[in-house]
Records
---
Amino acid sequence: MENRTALAAFAHRLLLLALLGFTTQAFTAGAWRQLAVVIGASSAWVGILAYLLDIIVRAAKHGVKVEGQE
């Protein structure tokens, strides 16, 4: 039961980070790390999350061309 609570809290933090990133689209990887540390995510996951979310935000910002799309 305790693991579910921790997992739910972690998922909530990830959702919050994602929402903040997609609404501002101005976060760099460093800003993601700082924000996640303030929220309380573990430092190992912070680096991975920051890198992935930075890629997603950049792709959304510049538009992603799907193969076969003109």
---
Amino acid sequence: MKRLQTALFTTLLAILFLSGCQNSSNAVMSPDPVKKHDNPSLNWIDDTFSEQTVWQYMAKEMTMPTESNSRIEKEIDFYKNKQRYFTDVSTRAEPYMYWLSEQIKERKMPMELVLIPIIESAFRTDVVSSQNAAGIWQIVPSTGKNFGLKQNQLYDGRHDVVASTTAALDLLERLHKMFDNDWLLAIAAYNSGEGRVMQAIAKNKKQGKPTDFWSLSTLPPTTKQYIPRLLALQSIFKNPEKYGVKLAKADKANALIPVKIDQPIELSAAADQIGISANRLQHLNAGYKKGVTNANGEHYILLPRALETQFISSIESGQIARAKVKSSTDQPNTQTASNSKNKTPNTQGQYTIEKGDSLSLIASKNNVKISDLKKWNNLTDKSLILPGQKLIVNSTKLANAQNNTAQKNDTNKRQKIVYTVKQGDSLGKIAQKHGVKLAELKSWNTIKDDKKLKLGSKVTVYVDSNS
């Protein structure tokens, strides 16, 4: 019976996630860069949540008008008796809700928008859909690029909660203006793409029918379900007791805040110093794909506010060492195919479409499958490609082979030393002490866990010959 319950719950999560995944056609071009937001005020958190929980605050701020509607009631019935789902999703969401609700409040947008990541991803930062939509907002690569989200070998802004939230809210603001300040149409367009909503409106106008969301019968089924599901969640979060739902206990000590840093660091090494699990810190900062923050310029990591002071102190004292990481460009790889006769494939790079190109020809030039080329670029058989357009070409087999060779060459250039473990040592501290990555240290040794690290044991380290 227990196995059956687990299987049923897993199926439920899959249904909820798949029904929320964003359609790949929702990209909107924007000339504006991603807006830079300062760290949220800790005073705001203390003042706002001194006498109310984040759930109570959200409920009070949710003022989007609703109507008695059988489609909404159907979704409310769908959510009834799913306490385990609400426990899990509210536990994941609660730490993010403090910062997220502040951003929405600042922009004077409907607080109901905080519910979109629940539908889209159940607040899973690392999730990727079959349409290659990623992160809590399920943003596809083209939309992310249009709204300033960097995507390269080391970092994917779609998995970065701070960056992706800024992009998603920018997109929703654009859609709100596009659809004459109608939030239901804007949210529907977020799900299906503005083109489909415009087509549905045009068809209704031609037939002399109303053009509000509820009257658009030609929208995709998932979009017709999307708005009722959002408004069903609004009803439940505004009055959970009425629907027999218990949300996770809210504690403002869980609140996450972005903390600015100006040097690259290894997340696992930082976790070791500030008393948080490496897995947890990586999950909070899933945008850093390799577990290392940006090589250049000011950036941030997302932390529980209670750890901010300790983190900053550890950075300033050098306990969290500067990571050695190569700079990466804003795009997966700036290499493009300049010669149409060149048969050498790009590795996780771009191809610039030339006159006379077809998908089959481009796939042949780059030694990849047409199906993969379509998947990486969210293309269908009906997609139009034009000269000058750039396509992502991700030849992973070649990339992996080149990476393995590069790693071997890198080790050959270093000096091998044998380090004797001392009292208080951890793998993270040993890596910091020698200026190497924790992942590298683990790859050079059979010891993969601090629990197996014993006083006096020997650890192999390859250090730069000039250090």
---
Amino acid sequence: MNSMITALLVAGVILAVTNAYWYRREKALRDGLETSVGWDETIAGLDGADTADRRLDAVADILDTSVEDVPAAARSLDSKVRDLQRSVEETRETWAGIAANALRTDAVEPDDVLVVHLVGGTGEDARALSSALDQDNLTAVCAHEDVTFVLTAGTMSDESAIAVARAAMVDAPGGVGGSETLAQGGGDTDCFDSIEEALAEKAGNNLTVVSLGRN
């Protein structure tokens, strides 16, 4: 097994493991947010004739605590949500750095025109990996989980990221926005073909394409 395949397999394993971790952490986060949403909906459902005591009782019931402990429970919930959000972001950044290093070991050169298909990833994962790669040329990271992409133009590229992305998406379903150095968009999986074709043309058909994650 050559070093390029090894690097890709390592990055794929890393992604699979961290995706499992993210799922557990984000489920806890969603549970907390659902509690917050339930809180809002319950309070909104009480009409003006309801007393402040009834409103406070409703909040206490949602938070599964006594009326006296509502302020502390609300602060605790807010703190947990913020901690989980930070933890997810820190884990994502760590994974992105490791995956980028694995790709650079043998599969990718800094000046490559590059497309990375992130099979099990989301747009947030794509942004993190794109930032960690910090390529000198055009780079697109395609997140298959939510069908989004991030396209960047590095310091060696004379191209505009937003112009390349818009041209690629002219006949593809979806939308795009961004700047000269970074564009983001999505639609359906046809947009990935359009982005890959556009970058292949810019690369003179000397395009590096890699895939990370589960198939």
---
Amino acid sequence: MEHETGVFDVVAAVSEVEAVMLPNVDTLEDNMARLDLTEPTREAIRAAALEGRIEERDGAEVLLVEGRALDRTPMDPRWTNIPSEEGVVVVFGIGVGNTVRALREQFDGAVAIYEPNPGIARTLLEQGPHGLGDVDLFTSLHELEQTWPRISGATSSATIVRVVGYPELYPKENAELHSMVEQLVARSSVNVSTYRQRARTWVSDLLDNIELLADAPPFMALAGKLEGVPAFIVGAGPSLAKNAHLLDEARRKGLVIAVNSSAPALSRRGIEPQVVACLESVDVSHLLRDLPFMSRVIRAYSLTAHPATLRSGDGPLMPIFEALPELESALVKLTGQKGLPVCGSVSTAAFSLAQRLGCSPIVLVGQDLAYTGGHAYATGTAYEASRACISEDGKSLDLSWCTTLRETHDAGAAPMHDKEPLEWVTGWGGGEPVPSGLSFSPVRAWFGQAARVLARETPNLKLVNATEGGARIDGFQEVALAEILSGLPERGPSVEELVTRARAAARPLDAAAIADFLQEQVRATRRVRRAAEGLKKLARNALKHMDRDDAGRVARGFRKLEAAEAELRDSVRGAPLVDAWCFADVDAEMEVPDHSDDARAQARDGLLREARIATAVSRAATELVRRAEQIATRMKREPGPEKSRR
């Protein structure tokens, strides 16, 4: 399903001025505590000087900045066009909060504010109670992008509301916000499809893998600890053959992170990275376990990767996890670490990890993001025999995957595709266009958007594409790897140093703490089951009253259903794993169209659908309670992580 980004401006008139005194700044911290703020946004507001002044006009507060009056209470009738629970609304500017408060009265879904001037945010937050609710506030587009998966959840639509005066005062930021939201929505559409296919598998694998957190510090505990250390993100693109021999030197001068598909190519060349990263939900253990360095390198494996993969290799495990909305909140609570933004490729996770660690420059190697020379993978990888050919009509790519890749990926939930639309893109260094496709487009766009945001937010961070082939990636300098290495000192951290520093930064969890976390999930999940069973019963009762033409009981039943729906939504928010487990079943029910124009028939179909959805949620909750209790019981008996190979 395609979604468009709705964009409209909030307009209001401005009249005479009456000054309003600003209260004491002591209220700033209290007001910030009432909002959902990332730490960088919180620090930006604290460090900012006050900007503008708040005055009263015709009984309503406005903010005066550079002679402009910002943010009157919106009276535009188009507010009613915002759906009550779908999508995300991004508000451009906080003003004095009038627009956001009015919006919250009309809209029950997620609201995020992008305020490009931290000083304006500080001016408002030094006032008394702001009444904005628990909205997310960002002073940085990078922070908005990083947090988008949590905000948007499983939705792939968004609306931008521009507070009056902001587009004129901040035209550049206005254009950047529009571009970013469009890309985030497009990316979310792809992610929703992936999520529908894999969410249940991710939760199942997470439950199987969670015990491995015992005595294994998350890699994200090293956030900011490698400031200025170069990082080399090594993909498995065909151009890796051009400069892979230089990665031994790269290891001495920085942190080399290979991904699971490029690791065999490095092994065949006798090159040992410090880190191998993997997100794969399919089992790739057979491609990794016999590599000679797997007993020494750090395994930065996702907690949602296949359980057999996490249990392959004896090198130190330092787990990572993605910023998947239905999984991240629970894992943040357990580990104290935020997930990594990703987009369909383990290389994006490795990039996010390097950026989180404070590395600079971040250098991409083997990241063709194109079918260079008709090849899909580099020589030396397990998938090197895979090929891509342009179709006879020149509009698509015929993909011939090697046997190893097919056998590996066809065992998962989403078998490999054999054809995709052809896209010609600018080549590395501005050379001839190279053939690419939809498999690479979201990843290339993600890297480009990350580069644009980081260029403004962290201008000292240097991003380099040293692939020396494949597609151009916007925002990355294009420099040969040898040239980059020639100007770098030797700062490569050892595996032992990284593990020691991670343990010092975040004490690994013990089995008891993980068991307690699982029991907490069990309690929250049982509440979901009770709410779902209650909703199912009310829906069936309403059907009986409808069949008996008992209008009074039908009306009372629908009022009870509304309250039961609210209770189920609230309980699911406290048990996000249930949402992920049953997402595909619930989504399928929601997509079933109504087949009648008759209002009574539609109401009856709606009740039947509601009962089926409640049944799916209750079934998911029952299954999750059983799985979580089994693991929690085992962990209470076994103080250490389970070691067996699967």
